[in-house]
Amino acid sequence: MDTKNVAFIKKKRFWAGILLAQFVLFYIFSKSEYWINFFDKFYNVQKNFHIRIFSSIPFSAGDFFYILTGVFLFIQIINIFRKTKRKKALLSTLIFLNIIYFTYQIFWGMMYFQTPIIKKLSSQEKPNIQKAKILALKYLKKAGESRKLVSEDKNGVFIIKNREALIEEIIHQQKLLPEQISSKMPLTQISVKESVFSGMMSYTGISGYYNPFTAESQFNSNLPHSVIPFTIAHETSHQLGFAREQEANFAAYLVGINSKNPELRYSAEYFTLKSLLRYIYLEDEDFAESLVKQYSPEMERDRAYERNFMIRHEGSLEDFFGFTNNLFLKSNRQEGSVTYSYFVNLLLNYEK
């Protein structure tokens, strides 16, 4: 074996060993309260630093980072099948994976292991179907009232009148979250962007995402407007520091229902109602269906528009991304994306 091959094998083993060591190290960190708190404090500092850098860029820098990453990996995969470039491509890919994995873990991955919100609530009872029914009736009434205060398009479907004011209200309401829920450092600037992948996202079932490398909140701008305010509140809850999906939903719920902005409040109340109805439907289909029939005419128009949007965009891409997102959530020891019970559990224990 020539010296070049020996050197290549040593480098490959070194970087593969470093990657394996990272897996072990961050797994150990995830079991330590000290390190979990350390990364939580670190996140509070680095998120605002990144927001200051990337918020001034008028487009989604994070989306372009992912595009460049995809192009780089595509080129490396092609080169792996070329004998003359295989070694360099393998080594470059290993080094790149080490950098990406380390950066992801220190910027975001460790945030999944914070103390669950449910443990911070005074009540920690199991979900109760009767209480869920009472709350569903409450939010049916509240959503109907809030819906009358928002603007409509020519077809009578809800539209957002002032997105900038909506986002400012979300950031303001985050500062008012109950202390037992959040002691996180408030966002100092707004960094919410329309995703350049919005067209594709409509076919994947993805409404938005948080980019941990740039601390930007991305949302699908093609979504029905009834969904967008809560989606932005959800993604900025990630931005604030709530990593778990259903805890970000809960933070967004608190932000929305306490808002004086009717667009945000309606979207949050409507999301809460739909979540409760999904939960109730598993136990009592007749009750859930009877509540849907009680939607106000305005809410029914929004519901019909959402259904048509979903029908127009359903397909294999949604199944694929739903499956991969489910795997990602479970790899971070969360409930899968198809499970909404944790949000309902938080809601039922929080509501008096």
What does this structure look like?
- The chain is mainly alpha-helical.
- The protein has helices spanning 3-30, 33-54, 61-80, 86-107, 129-147, 163-174, 198-201, 228-240, 245-257, 262-281, 285-292, 297-313, 316-331, 341-350, and strands at 151-152, 158-159, 192-194, 208-211, 216-219.
- A three-stranded mixed sheet has the order 3-5-4.
- A hairpin with a 5-residue loop joins strand 1 (151-152) and strand 2.
- It is globular and about 80 Å long.
- The N and C termini lie far apart (73 Å).
- 32% of the residues are buried.
Write the layout of secondary structure elements.
Elements lengths: L2 H28 L2 H22 L6 H20 L5 H22 L21 H19 L3 E2 L5 E2 L3 H12 L17 E3 L3 H4 L6 E4 L4 E4 L8 H13 L4 H13 L4 H20 L3 H8 L4 H17 L2 H16 L9 H10 L2
Parallel strand pairs: 3-5
Antiparallel strand pairs: 1-2, 4-5
Helix pairs in contact: 1-4, 3-4, 5-10, 6-8, 8-9, 8-10, 9-10, 9-14, 10-11
Descriptive terms for the model:
352 residues; mainly alpha; 2 domains; three-stranded mixed β-sheet; two-stranded antiparallel sheet; 14 helices; 64% helix; globular
Q: From the structure provided, what is the oligomeric state, counting identical versus distinct chains?
A: single chain
User: What's the helix-strand series?
Assistant: HHHHHEEHEHEEHHHHHHH
**Cα-to-Cα separation, first versus last residue:** 73 Å
Average pLDDT score: 89
Rg, alpha carbons = 22 Å
As a percent range, the share of helical residues equals 55-70%
| Estimated structural class | mainly alpha
Q: Please give the domain count.
A: 2
Low-pLDDT runs: 316-329
Q: Major beta sheet, specifics?
A: 3 strands, mixed
Taken as a percent bin, the fraction of beta residues is under 5%
Tell me the overall shape: globular
Number of helices: 14
Q: What is the number of strand segments?
A: 5
Strand order of the largest sheet: 3-5-4
